[in-house]
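Reviewers asked in the last cycle whether our approach scales beyond single polypeptides. To address this, we selected a multi-component target totalling 452 residues and predicted its structure end to end. The input consisted of the following lines:
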Amino acid sequence: MQAIAYQSAKSIDEAVSVLRQWGERARVLSGGTDLIAQLREGRRHDVEVVLDIKSIPEARELRYSPGQGLYLGAAVPCYRIYEDAAIARAYPALADSAALIGGIQIQSRAAIGGNLCNASPAADAIPSLIALGATCEIAGPNGRRTLPVEQFCIGPGRSALEQNEFLVALRLPSPAAQSGSCFLRFIPRNEMDIAVANAAVALTLNPAKDRITAARVAIGAVAPTPLLVPEAAAALIGAPLTEATLERAAEAARAAARPITDMRGSIAQRRHLARVLTRRAIESAIQRAKES
Amino acid sequence: MSERVQIQATINGEPVQFLAEPRQSLLEALRDELGMTGAKEGCGNGNCGACNVILDGRLVDSCIVLAAEVEGRLLTTIEGIAQGNHLHPLQQAFLEEAALQCGVCTPGFIVAAKALLDRTPHPTEDQVRHWLAGNLCRCTGYDKIVRAVLRASESTEANA
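The resulting structure, written as structure tokens, was:
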């Protein structure tokens, strides 16, 4: 691995100033489970400085209230999500993702924000963030801006961050009453693997709990970026909770998938998985909404 | 650029100062700068757990932590598990269950299991297997390792 400098920023302004100074030669470090591995494997020769954001208060904060929703600092590690009972109950799909990214050792360090910024098509947190309607809070030389999370990834490993910008935090709206969500991933092993395909669903039921009033469906590892699938949500919203409704939504996810064949799976297998995982995630989200 | 930086941390209860290059991983600093060779490099990319240490109470892969990140923090390594000549119940159980062959993965498994028992003194077999999913063994197989962890968890000293 090449020589690098290490800088730990204590504030957003300090981080932006380091980014301005180093430009594309700087790379932001949160949990490091992608970045340090990439550096060590010689896949990031362009990096001369790693900028640690874990000492920036806004990047390490995790705060939830039913009124305000979730504030998730970009450097908050996975375990803090699933070990917080109130957060895990309000955002079960996010807790599902946080609990299956790598093993315990990875979850000690890996941040949901880092998973997003790494922008892998197979990222395990991104479909959940999309389904749960997360918004990115971004800081840069021109100040702050926000971006819906489904617009953040623009290609494999590529994000909508402009030069010298970094992700500070994610905000997730409070779930409405009778809401549930679920994230599912298919891997050949039981643990510690990269998704062949994944899917996340967040939905809200009416007070009688027999109809879906709001839904968002996202799928991953089946396109160059994780995808929001509005057609799948449209098939669910307002429709009766029947076999046919669920199948229409799952089929919409299959139709939206634009996968490739690689060492992990084929186009046909991934399309099939997009349908099956979406179907199962809907069922689980409905169940969780009924129990909520 | 490759200037060495001074790092202070508490390792196995002792305050320690050392110099490391910013590019060095915590694992490299432990092994090459501090002579603590208990943690092993297996994969070098966070998949195998052979380099496991406990950092501020959380189990981490030291190969994908930068040494510079541990400034001011608390570290427990395999060298800090035994109390002098008195083996930790996990170490004793690994011996009694013959839960090792080549031994390269063993320090990582013991540190990982220590982190589990610190949080969950009496885990179920499923909890042990789930917790150890980030540790790979290529010779013994996992049954003996899981048995050793469960055996250690029955010892009243396991949390000592």
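The longest strand of chain B covers residues 5-11. We regard this as preliminary and will revisit it once experimental data from Aim 1 are available.
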